[in-house]
Request: fold
Amino acid sequence: MLLFYVRHGDPVYYPDSLTPLGERQAEAVSKRLAVYGLDEIYASTSERAQLTAKPTAEVLKKEIKLLDFCNEIHTWFEFSFDDGQGRSWIFQKPKYRRLLASREIASLGDEWYDYPEFKQYPFKDGVMRVNRETDAFMRTLGYEHNREKKEYTVLEPNDKRIALFAHQGFGICFLSSILDIPYPMISNHFDMCHTGITVIEFKDEDGVAIPTLLTLSNDSHIFREGLPLKYNNSINF
Reply:
């Protein structure tokens, strides 16, 4: 099975929508995914994720199945905080970026949220929720997550191509959960651009699958359509 994770297009956060550029990005990614072909399409319940998925669903004549656990509003309140200078993600605060990269946090592994300074925040609850919901979603696709062994039991072997349209903040949590890589490592060192395509392969090896990240936030469709190659409209690639 191949799982395509697609971040939404250039957004308007309030009200929840896409900019004209975001709409063009959504059209661009639909052309690319139409070449691959998809068996199922899922999206966050946010409007910007659904609008990004819509052109792909129309081209491939597929229903968009909504997943509320992917809505970034949940992870926003679980993995962000207000330090008096405005609310932002933990990985956007320089102080906490350094802490997330520290040996002290690395030594805690999957239980990084037990670091004393982090216990005042709902990070643990967020990790537990995303893990629980992600595992339930993966079971519907035929893969049972064994977190102790960091592998998946293949319940229903398949060669499906599944697309999930969602977000950056949630996506970082999702990749951490899917790949069994602690959140501090993912959030500090990896990111996703608008409509970037991340592809994860679940290869059946004698009834067991260890997911492999084939590409992270690939934006070749943006290049092909001649759209601006900027991360969050700020950094030229």
Observations:
- The chain is about 40% helix and 25% strand.
- The two ends are 31 Å apart (CA to CA).
- The longest helix spans residues 123-140.
- The first strand starts at residue 2 and ends at 7.
